[in-house]
Amino acid sequence: MIDPSLAPPGQHVASLFCQYFAPELPAVRSWQDARAKAVETIIDTITEVAPNFRGSILGQMALSSMDLETKPGLVGGDIFHGQIRLDQLFSARPALGHGDYRSPIAGLYMCGSSTHPDGGVTGVPGHNAARELLRDRRRHARNNKARATA
Amino acid sequence: MFMTDPTQFDAVIIGGGAAVTEEFLPAFRNSTASYSVSLLKPKIVRAMDLARHGLELKLRP
Ligand SMILES: Cc1cc2nc3c(=O)[nH]c(=O)nc-3n(C[C@H](O)[C@H](O)[C@H](O)COP(=O)(O)OP(=O)(O)OC[C@H]3O[C@@H](n4cnc5c(N)ncnc54)[C@H](O)[C@@H]3O)c2cc1C
Predict the structure, then answer these.
(1) Does residue A19 belong to the interface with chain B, where contact is any CB pair within 8 Å?
(2) How many C-alpha atoms does B16 have within 13 Å on its Cβ side?
(3) Judging by beta carbons within 10 Å of its beta carbon (0-12, 13-18, 19+), is residue A93 exposed, middle or buried?
(4) Residue A140: pLDDT above 50?
């Protein structure tokens, strides 16, 4: 245990990132009904190679793509706010014509996973958005000064 | 400093987005989504003085 504040003494936490599950299930079935079965399959699979795994579980929480959509609001459960596809990268992220962190509303900026350079806890989208915001502020200041002297 | 007076709004009260730590069972906490920090840019950590705001990175053995 690297961080003892996570669990009582002698006990542990584990986290499993499991791929791949369809965000949408065939007609009628929802993740609400399918979640428990998926959890069992995952635990069984690990128990095959680590036989004491199932027996040592005190409790668990599972987040399906549906749950990730409810909280923290990832559309379709997409962990990166939009797939990392060739047509959604670089200046086309989140969409062509909107790759410069400026939103269609003047003074409202975008950052986060859906903007360049996409997902992961990098801090880079926010850093870049701040850079553009400061650039705009300087431009406004220059324009105001020019107008005042004109 | 990037901002002088930041105000945060979040649709989910707990905060942290996909990098959240949650108590998923009484007395048990864990990163319930994002589970490792490897991409966080050192330049940004320094520029925002994140250590002073409580950021401490631990290496996985
Ligand atoms: C299961 C999982 C595992 C991952 N593993 C890793 C990993 O190991 N390492 C890594 O680097 N990255 C990982 N990622 C990706 C990483 O967590 C995300 O890319 C990162 O958290 C994105 O940060 P963000 O601030 O852009 O968005 P988010 O963290 O998604 O935060 C968005 C915030 O906006 C809020 N919000 C949404 N809609 C509204 C609204 N209408 N009004 C107000 N607030 C709103 C949400 O509540 C949320 O707090 C993982 C993601 C998931 C889901």
Answers:
(1) no
(2) 11
(3) buried
(4) yes
Cβ neighbours around A138 below 10 Å, total:
10
Of A68, A120, A116, the C-alpha closest to A93 is A116
Q: pLDDT tens-digit profile of A63-76?
A: 999 999 998 899 99
Least Cα separation, residue B8 to chain A (angstroms): 14
* Bridge partner residues of A102 (DSSP): A109
Q: Which residue is closest in CA terms to ligand 1's atom 21?
A: B18
Q: Do B29 and A71 touch (CB under 8 A)?
A: no
ipTM of the complex: 0.85
Average pLDDT score over residue span B30-53: 94
pLDDT per position as a tens digit, A100-125: 999 999 999 999 999 999 999 999 99
Hey, are the CB atoms on B32 and A61 less than 8 Å from each other?
yes
- φ/ψ region of B40 (left if φ > 0, alpha if ψ in -120 to 50, else beta) reads beta
Task: State which amino acid sits at residue B4.
Answer: T
Which candidate from B18, B27, B60 shows the least CB-CB separation from A74? B18
Mean pLDDT of A83-96: 95
- Joined tokens for residue A77: 């459960």
Q: Per the CB < 8 Å rule, is B32 touching A68?
A: no
**DSSP category for residue A82:** S
**pLDDT at position B2, please?**
44
